[in-house]
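Quick one:
INPUT:
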């Protein structure tokens, strides 16, 4: 372990901002833990259906305030995308080459998920599994991909995004919600916010990359202003308190994003900026930095396979012959919550198995002149430098 830590430390460029990587790791792990806590697979009458504890226990909405971290991911994505594109231009790299490299790393692991689950779904249907069960499981696997599509689109638009102020995107979200909820406009208008809503933190990240968020003042302004706006929208404008979708709810803050989700995201972005200093000091320790680096090297693998890990544990648990608390039961009590917390380490072990099987699709293998490099810098060092 000490040798691994030493290798990661020596492979890290001196000018790398480790705090930015820590924010990205936090955002990914927040989404994973959030899904594991608010998604239940209920075994009922030979089928499996999805449910959420927030539907039965709305007082747990505060969980989504901590674990719905997509805004931080888009903030970091905008920051790193803008810096990466500026660096590519300085080196003379074309836009197409730059975008191709970023898209390859983003979508190479997606192909593995789609192939595995296409085969799995076909095998389940052929063996007699109900369509409702297969649809429920497939939806859980595929639903996170919308996030990657939006992120890919914003990444492709980075040269334009760097010229857009976040307030323009925020104004679009505001007007869409005014038409939808205030003037009785059609509900399909909300889908405009899928792009505009996540454009706000992505643009904010691009501003950050240009040095446009100086000092801690910007962080406090975003945190306090975003929190106050979100509280006002929830308390007086009828927006739901949960920052994730809840089955059966009339309005979802996330699907599509609402103004409340965006202002909440701004508060999260402010908190992230305020944490930069403490994170940089903490990550000066090689062991702490190694943990963050390893999560970032497999961020997409973790994100894409975490639902599969949860479903694998759930399916294996069915062999017990009875519904297991916190795994197959209706999430309508504190007992379910305690049971789910006890299952989290098991989910983590299953995810570790998925990571071991599929991580190479994300990290790739270093090549030179079309051939795999077998001498020189080891793959780990190469991956850390390009992460």
């Amino acid at each position: 372990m000490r040798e691994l830590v030493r290798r990661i430390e020596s492979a890290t460029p001196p000018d790398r901002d480790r705090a930015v990587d820590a924010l990205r790791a936090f955002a990914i792990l927040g989404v994973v833990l959030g899904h594991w806590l608010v998604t239940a697979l209920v075994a009922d009458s030979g089928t499996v259906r999805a449910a959420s504890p927030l539907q039965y226990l709305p007082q747990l909405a505060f969980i989504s305030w901590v674990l719905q971290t997509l805004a931080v991911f888009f903030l970091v994505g905008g920051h790193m995308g803008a810096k990466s594109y500026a660096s590519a231009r300085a080196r003379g790299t074309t836009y197409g080459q730059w975008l191709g490299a970023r898209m390859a790393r983003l979508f190479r692991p997606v192909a593995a998920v789609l192939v595995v689950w296409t085969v799995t779904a076909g095998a389940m249907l052929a063996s007699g599994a109900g369509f409702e069960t297969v649809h429920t499981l497939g939806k859980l696997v595929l639903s996170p991909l919308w996030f990657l599509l939006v992120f890919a689109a914003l990444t492709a638009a980075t040269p334009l995004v760097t010229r857009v102020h976040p307030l323009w995107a925020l104004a679009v979200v505001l007007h869409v919600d005014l038409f939808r909820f205030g003037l009785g406009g059609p509900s399909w208008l909300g889908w405009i916010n899928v792009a505009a809503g996540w454009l706000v933190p992505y643009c904010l990240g691009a501003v950050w990359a240009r040095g446009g968020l100086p000092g801690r003042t910007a962080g406090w302004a975003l945190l306090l202003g975003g929190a106050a706006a979100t509280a006002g929208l929830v308390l007086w404008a009828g927006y739901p308190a949960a920052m994730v979708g809840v089955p059966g709810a009339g309005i979802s803050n996330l699907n599509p994003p609402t103004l409340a989700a965006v202002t909440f995201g701004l508060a999260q972005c402010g908190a992230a900026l305020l944490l930069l200093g403490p994170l940089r000091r903490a990550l000066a320790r090689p062991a702490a930095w190694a943990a963050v680096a390893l999560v970032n090297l497999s961020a997409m693998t973790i994100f894409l396979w975490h639902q599969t890990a949860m479903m694998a544990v759930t399916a294996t648990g069915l062999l017990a012959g009875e519904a297991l608390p916190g795994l197959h039961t209706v999430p309508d009590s504190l007992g379910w919550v305690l049971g789910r917390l006890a299952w989290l380490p098991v989910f983590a072990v299953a995810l570790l198995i998925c990571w071991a099987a599929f991580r190479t699709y994300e990290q790739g293998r270093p090549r030179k002149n079309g051939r795999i490099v077998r001498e020189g810098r080891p793959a780990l060092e190469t991956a850390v430098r390009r992460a």
